[in-house]
Amino acid sequence: MFGYARNVFDYAFAAESAKQKASAKKKPGKREVVIKRLGAEEQEQFVGRGGARAKEWKAWQDFAAVEVLGEAESRRVRETKRNLIVPMRWIDTDKADGKLDEDGKPRPLEAKSRLVVIGFRDQSLGFYRRDAPTASRLAEGVLLALAAGMGMTLELGDVKNAYFNGKQLDREVYLEQPAGGLPELKQGQLLRACKAIYGFAEAARHFWIALSGAMAKAGWKRSLLEDAFFTLRRGGQLVAMAVTHVDDLLLARSTGHRREDVLGSVATDFEWKWSSGKFVFRGREIEEHSDGFRVYMRDYASALKGVVIARDRRKLLEEQLTVEEKAEWQRSTGEIGWIARQGRLDLAHIAGSLQRAGGSPCIADLIKCNVAVAEAKRGQDVGMRYPRSLRVSSLCVGCAVDAGHANGEGAPEAIETYRSCGGYVLLLADEAILQDKSVPVAILDWKSGMTQRVCRSTLAAEAAHLANAVEIVDWTAVFLRETLQTYVDLRHWQVEARAVHRFWATDARSVFDYCTKEGTSMSKDKRMAIEGALLREVLREPRTTLRWIDGSQNIADVLTKLGVDKTYLYKVQREAKWSLVQDPVAAAAKAQKAAKRTVRREVLEKQRDARYSAAREQRAGELMASGVCDQAAGQPTAV
Questions:
Q1: Calpha distance 251→21 (Å, rounded)
Q2: What is the phi-psi region of residue 104: left when phi exceeds 0, alpha when psi lies from -120 to 50, beta otherwise?
Q3: I want to staple 149 with a disulfide (CB 3.0 to 4.6 A). Which of 133, 307, 390, 421 is the partner?
Q4: Which domains does the chain have, with CATH numbers?
Q5: Can you say how many angstroms the Cα of residue 305 is from the centroid of all Cα atoms in its chain?
């Protein structure tokens, strides 16, 4: 079915277990609550009358998610179809875990119970499709930027009991009651699943099919490039956009169109809980203000915890980790990696550095975890801004690019040590930025990573990462055209990309000169010569620009190395403005630093000269004392 051979159950079980272990370094979920460890009042919130478990079971019944079998039918199924029975369990969590109130104190318990299928015990695992698109970070950034520039308002919709709203289950499967049983059911009674309930591999896909089908029925158009990005037009005008992430829908709509008008039947086919003004989407705190939208990750950053390192091990930097220390390293690395992917580009490089140490982490990596946690907390109030001053009619797509040469990390004999780390920051800006003006910008995406091959020079490393930036800018230009225009022809995507002004900014003079000057390449690195020729070909296209910028203006600098001063990046994020020319304040600061370096160099030279003179005098005194030199003239005596 679907072109796949059915997995042997044992292999499927092992594969799913391995996948769950591997995914432990992704976004940390809420910790499960052990009910027996709670006080009597807190236990009542879960298992009491009207508690979280009772509400969950009532939702199962209200949505006809299952059919309860009689005792006789249950016995027959056990005898003839035992391989179709899947067990269930309760997952109890505290929705307020890690969250603080307005006074900065931990919020009280908010009981949440979920009755789930133990999916990896399903013997049909791997038999049915499980893919369900979710919006990328870039797609969400495009929605926020365009919505701000077009004066739209934002709302977040959360589908209640989302998977119960999915399409009917099209296979036969039975469920065992969880430990402790269910209300009004006798021990041994089975349930027949009617919906793809939480825990089934295909549950997310069934809900996605139901939601996307309802969106299409209501007149929404799904993107060809981003499956979870939707647009709605009225009279040829773009009036609403939406991105989905599992059971959440981020809606941007013109203020002249009501939510019910743009959603149509989608608003009534599902039970929604709507939020506006200030809400959390994908762990990102989104706020709407008169001047645009702001995105933070303060709650998550403030809840991060460092790693406790025993005092006697802190100086043993190359010592391998114990089992307990490695578990703490994996937890902290996963948390830092998730916050860096979701909204903290200033942490992207250190997060990648931690993850690349996955083979054999040591005490130094634990210390690096604590450095990352400290940086996350220091920059938690910076966030991203999407300004309303961004003019949609004169947008261009650009990238700030940076790279280092052979700045990888690893053992001296490891090839990763000689690879080059680099990255880019992708953004939308007003075309006036190419006229050396400071203009509104909106950061869409970012990437920090290593080159696939070892580069022989700084020029080759910079060119390799510039090539990556060229590809993402072209893709974004086509995606922008698709969003703003009624129709795009992806068969001729180059034509669509050329309709948008594209630019790249680098602080590497070598790669700038190589790509902008005419002439045959005399580089000894022939791979670099090929990449350079391709870059030149792109930069000869209409409406493309490569600019050299001063290193202090390069907001991608934080993606290539540790210990970078992030002051200028934070300034760009706060003000949502950027320029390709050095502003007077930055120029004065750079000149001041250069002057300090000059003074320091002169002082060091004087100190060196003084030490040299003192050493000469001391040596001369020693020689005169030994009679080797004439004491009057300080010259060697005749032999």
A1: 34
A2: left
A3: 390
A4: 9-282 (no CATH), 310-384 (no CATH), 389-582 (3.30.420.10), 587-639 (no CATH)
A5: 19
On the 0-12 / 13-18 / 19+ scale of CB atoms within 10 A, 183 is: exposed
Query: In angstroms, rounded to a whole number, what is the distance separating the alpha carbons of residues 284 and 266?
Result: 25
CA proximity to 165, closest of 273, 60, 63: 63
Cβ–Cβ < 8 Å for 225, 479: yes
Listed range (346-360, 437-451, 563-577) with the worst mean pLDDT: 346-360
- Per-residue pLDDT band for 119 (boundaries 50, 70, 90) equals confident
What does 222-246 look like in DSSP terms, one character per residue? E-SS-TTEEEEEETTEEEEEEEEET
In the chain, the N- to C-terminal Cα span, in Å, equals 102
pTM for the structure as a whole: 0.81
What is the Cα–Cα distance from 637 to 639, expressed in whole angstroms? Answer: 6
Q: Which amino acid is at 532?
A: G
Q: Is the pLDDT of residue 528 over 90?
A: no
| Inter-residue long-range contacts of 409-412, CB under 8 Å, 24+ positions, other chains counted | 409/353, 409/356, 409/357, 410/356
Residue 397 belongs to what H/E stretch? strand 395-403
The residue with greater pLDDT, 148 or 22, is 148
Strand segments, DSSP code E, in 137-247 are 153-159, 174-175, 191-193, 221-222, 229-234, 237-245
- Asked whether residue 411 carries a pLDDT value surpassing 60, the answer given is no
Task: List, in sequence order, every residue forming a beta bridge with 60; answer none if it has no partner.
Answer: none
CA distances from 32 to 39, 246, 479 (A): 16, 21, 40
The per-residue pLDDT for 598 is 85
Q: Is 491 exposed, middle or buried (0-12, 13-18, 19+ CB in 10 A)?
A: exposed
Other C-beta atoms closer than 10 Å to the C-beta of 355 total 14
Beginning with the edge strand found earlier in the chain, give each strand of the sheet holding 278-281 in spatial order: 278-281, 284-289, 292-296, 384-387
Q: What is the mean pLDDT of residues 29-54?
A: 85
| R_g of the chain computed on alpha carbons | 31
**Contact, 306 vs 369, CB < 8 A?**
yes
Look at 22-26, 189-193, 365-369, 461-465 and tell me which has the smallest mean pLDDT.
Answer: 22-26
Using 50, 70 and 90 to split pLDDT, how confident is the model at 20?
Answer: very low
